[in-house]
Structure formats: structure tokens, C-alpha cells
Amino acid sequence: MGYIEPAPIKDKSNPFESMMSRFNIAAEVLGLDEQVYNVLKSPSKQVSVSLPITMDDGSIKVFEGHRVIHSNILGPSKGGIRYAMDVHLDEVKALAAWMTWKCAVVDIPYGGAKGGIKCNPRQMSAGEIERLTRAYTQAMTGVFGPDRDIPAPDMGTGPREMAWLMDEYSRSMGTTVNAVVTGKPLVLGGSLGRVEATGRGVMVSALAAMEKLKINPYHANIAVQGFGNVGSFAALLLAERGCTVVAVSDISGAYYNEKGIDIKKAIEYRDNNKGSLEGWDGAELMADAEELLLLDVDVLVPAAVEDVIHSGNVDKIKAKLIVEGANGPTSAEADRVINEKGIMAVPDILANAGGVTVSYFEWVQNRLGYKWTRERVNRRSDRIMKDAFDKVYQASQKYDIPMRIAAYVVAIDKVAETYKFRGGF
Ligand SMILES: NC(=O)C1=CN([C@@H]2O[C@H](COP(=O)(O)OP(=O)(O)OC[C@H]3O[C@@H](n4cnc5c(N)ncnc54)[C@H](OP(=O)(O)O)[C@@H]3O)[C@@H](O)[C@H]2O)C=CC1
Ligand SMILES: O=C(O)CCC(=O)C(=O)O
Q1: What's the CA-to-centroid distance between 251 and ligand 1, angstroms?
Q2: Of 90, 94, 229, 404, whose CB count within 10 A is highest?
Q3: Ligand 2 center–CA 131 separation, angstroms
């Protein structure tokens, strides 16, 4: 096919190109129709805004915000909002496309989107973050909507920001619209199980992969990079299933205990320490935090940021299994070495899809005006995650391709099939 672009991509490259390099391989495996390929290779909408905010000291600071809708062919677009200093349009574009593939892999009726504001929430007061969130929501009022585009939390955001977003949007509409956003506090129509949902999906994927690799969870050692929403719940839930979590990390460093870390205590410490593990003495502080990725463990869970596994360190990775809690933690160049080494990598668009799955349940409950029990939420999301894992695993066997490409194949196949019936171009 003429549209495959074989040009090599440099490590730490443009994240959208990194996404495209996997998309291209999967498109070739499937023999994807060229017209569908051309539609999917570009986002359907990109909105960038400047947000002037009055800071607590009276100065006015202008922040850069984005919302990218990659596709809404499967339904309203869905995806989180990230607050971080390295947010930029190409990253948001890649994250939006990953959401399209992720929703298709778990077979929920959403397209893909993502938002981001370039800011450092750790250095801002709650009032400043609230004003910024409300300004962003105002700017995106014509983009968001329960049948159009439904945001959710991502790095640097959580239920508090989603509450402000819901309130600001509802004020603009003159009525309470709780289904416009997911990941809300329970009292505003949030779903039981959403806070831990992404980590729980990582746990379900990890156990399913361990079964294939014949790794006994009770004998498995695990290292988790990132101790925020995704990493801490993944660590906690895997420890509850009998695994030994020997290392965890956040920006303050990596903490190691070969006998196993008491994850409950680590979470308690973090929660009483402004969200940071800094100063924690429940495990040994590693001299070099990057070494966490290179530990001789059975399972590595990168659950922080993009491109942490790259051509400079992939040779030294010893884990048998990588389960991607973060979006895009492995650079496209590192894929080849991972495959050559025979490491199974459960890709982001599958492993971390538990979050958007329970977001979907939240939206369904909001529209029903009804609440499900935690047990029902967990049972249904575990089933969706396990079914998705099995479908991707089968595709990897059928086409003799790695799990990452298999996940893209499953996703792109569904989107292409939808285009076949909907047409419209
Ligand atoms: N929240 C969700 O539902 C979903 C999130 N994801 C993805 O998971 C990843 C993590 O998101 P989430 O847990 O929500 O974010 P959080 O903001 O809750 O946590 C991020 C964590 O990563 C740590 N961190 C950041 N940079 C590094 C680094 N270089 N090395 C080690 N640790 C680091 C942070 O440390 P510190 O606190 O010290 O800054 C923090 O512990 C992101 O890629 C996100 O897109 C994917 C699906 C859903
Ligand atoms: O919960 C959601 O809707 C989206 C979560 C998200 O941003 C992600 O899966 O990367």
C-alpha cells in the first residue's frame, strides 16, 4: 500500500508520529482501506486557547490550553484533561488518537479526545487551579457536551477539577448537566469504582498476561513507576492478589524493598505528605530512580509519563512482562527490542482502558439517573477488560504480531467496519 510511511523516527520524537508508526503497521496487517486511513491519520478537530488568569498575587498569567478530538465515528468523543508543564499540541493529538483506539479495543461507544493545559498544578493554589479550570471550561463550552465530547481526569487532575468543570458547564447551560464529565466526586454523580478503575484494569491485564506466561502471581515481583492515581492503585490491587511489589516511584525518587513494599502504608504516607513519597522511610531510596525500570522483576508497570522506555535503556530491561499503566510509556523505537527480547508488552490502549470503561459506566448511570453498586461496576469492568485482553491476544496469535500491534488491529478493524456502514465521506 502506498500510504505506509517507513521513514525512521527518532527516539523521544513527536508523540503523534510515534502513535502513527504503530498505526501504520497495523493498517498494513489489516490492509486498511486508503480512504479510511486518510481520515484517521488526522484529528477531526483541534482547539487551542489562551487563558488569562488572575493569580493570587494579583498578577495576570496567560496559560495555553488544548482540546483535540481525534474521532467521533464510534460515538461522542471521550478523554481526560492533563495539567502538566510539558503539555503541547502534538502530545495532546497523540493522546486523543490513543483514546479512539482504546475505546474501540474495549468496545465502548465513544470516539477519542484529549485535553491539556500547560501549567504546574503543584505550584498553584487551589483558587488558581479553580479559576483556570473554569476558564478552560468556558472556552470549551461549544466543544464539550454529554452527546458531543466528554472529558475526564488525567495526569494532574482528579475529581476536584471535574467538579469545577461540571459546575461551570452547567452554569453556562442553565441546568445541571452531570453527564458532561466523568471522574466526578460521588456526590455529584461520580461512579463508585472510578477512582481505582484504571489501576484495577492494569491489575486485570497483568494477571491475564501472567497466566499466558505461566507466571504465578504469588511468586511474581513487580516494579511500578509513578505513584499517582494509576500506579498506586495498580500496586495496591496487585499486592492484594498476592504479588510482591518491590519498587515504586514518583518524582521524589524510587523506593525499593526486596521483601515487598507495604503499599497501603505508602499510600497513607503520600496522602499525608501533599501527594508525595518524598522522605518516606518504608523502603530504601534508590540512588538512581531510572534504575527502577531495569530491575530484575517479573512485571514492570510504567504508570507515569511517555517515552520512559526508549532505545537508550530498553536493552537493559529484565522484566518478562510490561503492563503499560501510562499512555505512551514506550517509544516506537524500543518496540523492536522488546519484541526481539521476547518480552510481552500489554499496551497502554488495552492495559489502562479500565478508567475509560468505568467513565462510560458513570455516564450511563448519569443518563439513567441511577447508581450501580461498586460490586456491579467492578464485575462489569473486569469482564470488559478480560474480554478485550483475550481478543487482543487472539489477534496477536492469528497474525503472529506483538500485543501492541494486535491491539491496534482490533481497534482499527472496529473503526473501519463502522465507517463501512456509516459512510459519509
Ligand atoms: N487517571 C486515569 O484514569 C488514567 C491515566 N492514564 C495515564 O496514566 C499515567 C499516570 O496518570 P495518573 O496516575 O492519572 O496521574 P497522576 O497525576 O495521578 O500521577 C502521576 C504520577 O507519576 C509520577 N511521575 C511523574 N513523572 C514521573 C517520572 N519521571 N518518574 C517517576 N514518576 C513520575 C508523579 O509523581 P509526583 O506526584 O511526585 O509528581 C505521580 O506519582 C498518565 O500517562 C495518564 O495519561 C491512563 C488512563 C487513565
Ligand atoms: O476516563 C476517561 O474518560 C478517559 C481517561 C483517559 O484520559 C485515558 O484513558 O487516557
Answers
A1: 10
A2: 404
A3: 23
Atom 1, ligand 2: which residue's CA is nearest?
Answer: 356
Ligand nearest to the CA of 84: 1
- One-letter amino acid at 332 equals A
Report whether 97 contacts 19 (CB < 8 A). Answer: yes
Take residue 124 and report the three cell numbers written for it.
498553584
**CATH class of the region 195-351:** alpha beta
State which CATH number among 3.40.50.410, 3.40.50.10860, 1.10.3720.10, 3.30.450.70 fits the domain covering 44-177.
3.40.50.10860
Question: Ligand 1: which of 157, 161, 229 to mutate, judged by most atoms within 8 Å of the beta carbon?
Answer: 229
The total number of residues written for the chain in this structure: 425
Q: 151 CA to middle of ligand 2, Å?
A: 8
Nearest Cα to Cα of residue 185 among 171, 214, 165: 165
Report, as residue numbers or ranges, the catalytic residues: 114
Q: Is 201 helix (H, G, I), strand (E, B) or coil?
A: helix
Ligand 2 pocket, 352 CB below 6 A? yes
Pocket test of ligand 2: the residue of 91, 98, 99, 362 to mutate, having most ligand atoms within 8 Å of its CB, is: 99
Q: Within 10 Å of residue 409's Cβ, how many Cβ atoms?
A: 24
Closest ligand to residue 201's CA: 1
* pTM score: 0.96
Q: Where in the chain is the domain with CATH 3.40.50.10860?
A: 44-177
R_g of the chain, CA atoms, integer Å = 20
> pLDDT per residue over 340-388, tens digit each?
999 999 999 999 999 999 999 999 999 999 999 999 999 999 999 999 9
Q: Which three cell numbers stand for residue 415?
A: 473503526
Give the pLDDT confidence score for residue 2 in this predicted structure.
31
Q: What residue ranges of the chain are covered by domains with CATH 3.40.50.720?
A: 195-351
**What is the band of 176 on the pLDDT scale with cuts at 50, 70, 90?**
very high
